Amino acid sequence: MGARKRLAAEKRKEENKSIAFASLKNSTIAPRKMKLVADLVRGVEVNKALNILQHSPKDASKSLEKLLRSAIANWEMKNEEKSLEEELLIVKEIEVSPAGMLKRIQPAPQGRAHRIRKRSNHVRIVLDGVKN
After folding, report:
1. For residues 59 and 105, what is the distance between their CA atoms, to the nearest angstrom?
2. What is the rounded (10 degree) CA torsion for 31, 33, 35, 40?
3. What is the CATH number of the domain that holds 118?
4. pTM: predicted TM-score of the whole model, two decimal places
5. Percent of the chain having pLDDT more than 70?
6. How many folded domains does the chain comprise?
7. 30 has pLDDT over 90
8. Exposure pattern of 49-64 as b/e (b: 16+ CB <10 Å)?
9. Which residue, of 22, 27, 53, 93, has the greatest Cβ tally within 10 A?
10. CA-to-CA distance for 125 and 95, rounded, in angstroms?
11. Residue 72 contacts by C-beta under 8 Å, 6 or more apart in sequence?
12. Looking at the predicted structure, is the pLDDT value of residue 36 above 80?
């Protein structure tokens, strides 16, 4: 590895020490529905985000809450010397991208058939610590 590449990699590693992430693959909720809930918690402090997700009536909020708790646990493992109370953790980014699609056929009147597309998604959440 060249010197410039190594220095860039070390710089990137240093920047990533304060962040933690978690990802959810092949969630069976449609990406459009998941994005509605993800937009509610983007850029919000984690305790407030958990509160929002717990009181949201949408089904997508349950899986996002579980994913957010996983990201918080990852941050705690990564930063053992810091506590959650002294750092202000925010949801830096939350990315919802489409995954594979199950294609099914549903019978319709007069011998026709309609195609049913059951969409799924991938979610990636990144937490960043901001000192108080």
Report:
1. 25
2. -160
3. 3.90.470.10
4. 0.84
5. 98
6. 1
7. yes
8. bbebbeebeeebbebb
9. 53
10. 6
11. 20, 46, 84, 89, 127
12. yes
